[in-house]
UniProtKB/TrEMBL annotation:
InterPro entries: CLDN1 (IPR042356), PMP22/EMP/MP20/Claudin (IPR004031)
Chief location: membrane
Location(s), subcellular: Membrane
Keyword field: Membrane, Transmembrane, Transmembrane helix
Transmembrane portions of the chain: 140-163, 170-193, 213-236
Species whose genome carries this gene: Mugilogobius chulae (yellowstripe goby)
Gene3D superfamilies named among the record's database cross-references: 1.20.140.150
Membrane topology of this protein: Multi-pass membrane protein
Cited PANTHER family: CLAUDIN DOMAIN-CONTAINING PROTEIN 1
Family matches, as Pfam families: Claudin_2
GO cellular component entries: membrane
Name this polypeptide is given: Claudin domain containing 1
Amino acid sequence: MVDNRFATALVIACVLSLLATVYLTVAIGTQHWYQYSSPAVRGEANASDLRSLYEEFMDGEFDEKTYSDTLFRLNGTVGLWWRCVLVPANAHWYKEPDTKFVLECRSFTLSHQFTPKYKEPGNHNSGEDLLRTYLWRCQFLLPLVSLGLIVLAALIGFCACLCRSLTPTLAIGVFHLIAGLCTLATVCCYLAGTDLLHRVSVLPDKVDGSLGWSLYLALISSPLHMMSAALLVWAARSHSQNYYRMTAYRVA
């Protein structure tokens, strides 16, 4: 029989885990991890240049410098699997005072994720930047590891419920702790990689960058997983201690 305290702790841990998993899943699937605010475009020559960048962004080959420059100059947003730019909905760029804008996105394919980064973006002769390369790979692999651990923990918990056993609770708590650490490491890798990209790239004048809500969702999910892990570990250890005390009492 499970004590009310343990049952309450398990229910709260499950709710926290569910919230954290939803937040992390939404963060992975959206592009608002980092966003750029670009100045308004003036002049037909500049508009033509931006149109060329946009066409290369949508239809050209994958190149870090090309898509980075486009993000800088077209109010871009970038996530773990998506990169998007804000462009006019009509064909005549920046000719109307009240132009409506739409968000156009391209995905990072699996081959893109494993593409090496260079010390000078776009210059393959500058040598591979190992730090940026592995930060980029970690930022998309670690959240998948985190989700995988949560799915595994959920399967173990479901089997434990069917068997009416609290024995696996400690392992489930450890999985949640590792998942929270992986999510936190994802955010750190993303921020470090973005900062390094800005150091090796030339940002246009009056372009500002800011963190997006997708990154904050991932950041929130990390402590939620850790709190869930703490409750699960506490419930497992307390139940184990009570079980041993009851066993010793019966033997005595």
